Amino acid sequence: MEVAVQSRTNEKFDLECTLFSSSIDWFNLRIDELGEVSAQVKRRSISIFPPVPKAISIDFMLYTCDGEVLPMKSWKSSVDEGEKLMA
User: Fold this and answer.
1) pTM given for the model
2) What is the mean pLDDT of the chain?
3) Residue 82: how many CB atoms within 10 A of its CB?
């Protein structure tokens, strides 16, 4: 979730890949979390993070200087455990 949100900030990162990833690395890249994303997760009362739901939605909102909130896009990711991959 953090990677999807940070990819929309248009901030460029110059990071080296690590050979072995740890639990906080995504795709062998270590990126510090944004405080506002962590705060939203805590406000939504998500006690187990990362969550293990069947589906998750991420809404991207634009907060204007006038105090308005405009929805920009919404992503939904789901897991279908009934679908098996063939080897």
Assistant:
1) 0.40
2) 69
3) 5
